[in-house]
Amino acid sequence: MSLRTRTTVSVNIDDMTTIKKLWIGIGILVLLSPLGLIMPALLGAGSAWGEWGLAEIKKLIGYIPEGMQKLAGLWKSPMHAYTVPGQKPGLAHESLGYILTAVIGIAITAGLAYVIARLLGRRKKGD
To answer: Could you state, in order of their start, the residue ranges of all structural domains in the chain?
Structure first.
């Protein structure tokens, strides 16, 4: 004779909708990310605000701040200028590059957060 037990899992519907809303909001921001590239191109404003390299900073303000000069080589982006390998030039391709790099960055960040949460959850259970 086998004894079966039934496990009930309760899911708070409000939490599910909050998480869903969060992912929808992130998706909207991903789709809007190329605006930082498109608007300056349409308005003839140069590059996107805050996306300046050392040469552009010097051109804008006349000098390169000492701290910026000192730390400029500290970090090299794995996807320079939001491009993907083999990407063609042009506003449409550059916009797609922005979206793809946003998705990749979100996937890496969410994955790391998930792994850290799982590891911390195991430690808590072991205490």
So the answer is: 15-78+90-126
Count other C-beta atoms under 10 Å from residue 106's C-beta.
Answer: 15
Nearest to 110 by CA among 23, 12, 32: 23
CA gap 97, 117 in Å, rounded: 30
Please answer whether residues 39 and 103 qualify as being in contact, where contact means their C-beta atoms are separated by less than 8 angstroms: no
The answer to whether 46 touches 115, Cβ cutoff 8 Å, is no
List the structure tokens of 24.
């929808």
| CA proximity to 101, closest of 87, 89, 115 | 87
d(CA 95, CA 32): 10
What are the tens digits of pLDDT across the range 68-104? Answer: 999 888 877 777 777 888 888 888 888 898 899 999 9
Give alpha helix (H) positions in the chain.
13-32, 35-43, 54-61, 66-71, 91-126
